[in-house]
Amino acid sequence: MKIRTFIDRPILASVISVLILLLGIIGLTQLPIEQFPEIAPPTVSVSATYTGANAETVQKSVIVPLEEAINGVENMMYMTSTASNSGSARITIYFRQGTDPDMATVNVQNRIATAQGLLPAEVTKSGINVRKRQTSNIKQLAAYSPDDSFDRLFLTNYMKINIEPRLSRIAGVGDVSVFGDDYAMRIWLDPNKMKKYGLMPSDISTVLDEQNLEAPTGTLGAESDNTFQYVLKYRGRYEQEVDYENLVIKSLPNGEILRLKDVATIELGARGYNYIGEVNGHPGCNIMIAQTSGSNANEIIEEIDRTIAEISKTLPKGIKIVDLMSTKDFLDASIKSVIKTLIEAIILVVLVVYIFLQNMRSTFIPALSIIVSLIGTFAFLSIVGFSLNMLTLFALVLVIGTVVDDAIVVVEAVQAKFDEGYKSSYLATIDAMDGITSALVTTTFVFMAVFIPVSFIGGTTGTFYTQFGLTMAAAVAISLLNALTLSPALCALIMTPHQTEGGNKMSFSSRFHVAFDTAFHRLVMKYKVAVLFMLKRKWLAASLLVVACAGLVILMTTTKTGLVPKEDMGTVFVDVRTSPGNSLQETKVIMDEVDSCIRSIPQIKYYSNVTGNSQLSGQGACNGMFTIRLKDWDERTQKEDAIDEIIDEIHQRTATISSADIMAFTRPMIPGYGVSSGFEIYVQDQKGGTTADLLK
C-alpha cells in the first residue's frame, strides 16, 4: 500500500489513528500502577516454631534438616536462615529472576515434606508455614489506645482475631506479621509445693494431655430400635482459669484430692513475652504486610485501605488504627509529579512547534501526532505486560520531543513545496511524501535500534531498564505510522500556502513572527560564521574533540554511581541494638530514653516502637526499632524538613545514649532488596565451626 492511498482516503487514515487511540485508552485503564518494574528475585519464606527452644537448638534440630532438604531446589540462587531464642525459625529462599513464584513455592513444599521425619514432634505438630513473598514490606499499620483503656495484650489479640485474617485474604498479600503474642493460659508452677507433693513438670503435662483435650465420643442408638438417636458431646478443651484450677492431679493418702490450683497459679496471659509495642507513647501493636512476588502493590494497598476503612467503623471505643508506612503515598506523589511534567512537556513542545511553523493549522498536525503516539503506547504496554511506573512514564516524557519530529518533517516538507510555488496542498503533499518517506522510515528504525537492545541486557539492570527502552521504541514506531498515514492526509486537507498580509497594519501574531524570524536569521548567520571559523582551523576542532573525550572518561570514572537516586519516601526507621544479653525490660528502658529524645521532632506525624524486634537485627530481647511516619510533603517545604536533615537530627539527639547502637535509615527505593537502600553483607563460616568461633 502506497502513501498516496492514505492521502486519497483521509477517512482510512483517520480510522487507523482512532483505532490506536481506542486501544491505548483501553490499555491505560487496565495497566497496573507501581513505582518500579518487578525486578527483585522471587522469594519463598519458610517459618516454624519450636516452643521453648533456644536459638542453638532451633538451628540444629529445625533449620539444619530443612536447609539440607531445600538446598538445590530448582532455580534456587541462595538461602538465608535465622533462629531466635524464642523458638522461632525462618528460612528465606531466593530464586532466579523469571522463576514462577507459585512453582517455586510448590517445589519448596515438596522438599520440606521429605524432612518431616527429621523434625521434632512439636514442630511438625504446630506446622511449617511456606509462603511466597517479597523481602520488603509494602505497608505497616498500628493499632493503639490513645486513652490507654486497652493494654498491649488485648490490642495484639484484637489484631490477630479481627484484622489479620481479613488482610490475609486480600489477593496479592504474601505475609501479615503481627508483632505480639496470642492469648494463652499461663500455669506458673510453685517449686516448693511441687517438691512437697513429689511432682515434676512432666506430671502436670500428663494431666493436661489427659483431661484437657478434644475427644470423639460417637453416638448412641445408631443400630437399635429406639425412637431417638443421640449424638454424644464432650466438653473438650477448657477456656476459663477456674476449669484449669480444678483439674485433678492425684489423690492424697488422707483421701483428699490434689488439684492444679494447689501447686500452681493459673492466669490468662500471653503465649510469650517477646515484644513490647507502643504508638505515640501509648500501648500499641504493629502489623506489617508484605506482597507476593509479581503482584500489583498499588492495587493491594488500595484494597487494604478499603478494608481498614470498613474495620475502623466497627472498632471499640478507645482503639485507633494509624497508617505508619505505605509505599503508595510516595508512588502517588511521584506519579502525580511525572504526569505534571508530561503535561508541561506537551505544552512546551506544541508552543515551540507553533513558534517555528507560525501557523495554527500546521501546528495542529504535530500536536495530534503527540497525542496519538503517547496514548497508543499504552496499548503496547498492556499487551506486553508492562506497568505504569516511573520508568515507563519517564520514557513517555522523554520521547515527546521525538514522536513530534516525524510529523514536523512532513509538515516542513509540504511547506517547502508551497515555497517552491505549489498552490495545491494535495499535489504538494504527494510530491513531499515521495521525497521523505524513506528518510522517515530509516531514521525511525535507527532510533529504535538504539533502545531495543536494552531488552537483551541481563541481570538486574537489564530487567530494570527493559521497560524504559521498549516504551521509547514503541512510541517512536507509532509516531512513524502516524506520520505515514494521518499526517499527510491532514496536510492535504487543511494546509495552505502562506498568505502575505497587505496594508500597513499587521496583527500582533504577524509582528511577533516577523521579529522572531529576524532574530532567528541573525542567530543562524552567527552560527554559520562559527562553523566557517572551525572549518578553517581543523586542528582546533580536533583538539576540542580530544578534550571532550578525555573529560567524558574522567567524569565517568569519578562520578558517583547508583541504580536509582535516593528520594524522600516519607518514612524513617530507627534501629536500636543494646548489649547482648539484655533483658526485654532493660531494652525497654533504653527505648524509652530514645523515645524521649525524638518525640519532639516537629516533622513527625506518627511513630511507633517495638521492643524485642528490629528491622536489621531481627527478633531478640536486646533489639528494638522505631517506625516514624513523617508529615506529608506539602507540610515539609523547608530545607530542614528534608529527610536527610531529619535523620541527622535523630542521630544528634540520640548521640548521648551510649548504651545502644542507634541507626536511622529510610525505606529502600527499590522494593524487594532488603529493608534499606544499602548493602547486606553475610559472613559465612565454611570450616564447620560454631557460632562462637565465627564471632571470634
Describe the protein's topology:
Blueprint: H1 3-8, H2 10-30, E1 43-49, H3 55-70, E2 76-83, E3 88-95, H4 101-113, H5 121-126, E4 129-133, E5 137-144, H6 152-168, E6 173-178, E7 183-189, H7 191-196, H8 201-211, E8 219-220, E9 230-231, H9 241-245, E10 248-251, E11 257-259, E12 264-270, E13 276-279, E14 282-291, H10 297-312, E15 320-326, H11 327-357, H12 360-383, H13 390-419, H14 425-451, H15 459-484, H16 486-494, H17 508-536, H18 538-558, E16 571-578, H19 584-598, E17 604-614, E18 618-630, H20 643-653, E19 660-666, H21 691-695
Antiparallel strand pairs: 1-3, 1-4, 2-3, 5-14, 5-15, 6-14, 7-12, 8-9, 10-11, 13-14, 13-17, 16-18, 16-19, 17-18
Helix pairs in contact: 2-12, 2-16, 6-10, 11-12, 11-13, 12-13, 12-15, 12-16, 13-14, 13-15, 14-15, 14-16
Extract low-pLDDT stretches: none
Number of strands: 19
Task: Examine the coordinates and then state which fold CATH places here, giving the name of the CATH topology of the domain at 3-30 and 359-498.
Answer: Multidrug efflux transporter AcrB transmembrane fold
| Strand portion | 15-25%
Structural class: alpha+beta
Largest sheet: 9 strands, antiparallel
How many whole angstroms does the radius of gyration measure?
35 Å
CATH superfamily of the domain at 3-30 and 359-498: Multidrug efflux transporter AcrB transmembrane domain
Overall mean pLDDT: 85
Supply the CATH class of the domain at 3-30 and 359-498: Mainly Alpha
Task: Give the quaternary arrangement of the chains.
Answer: single chain
Query: Total helix count?
Result: 21
Please identify, by name, the CATH architecture of the domain at 3-30 and 359-498: Up-down Bundle
Percent helix, as a range, is 40-55%
How many angstroms does the end-to-end distance come to? 78 Å
Global geometry: elongated
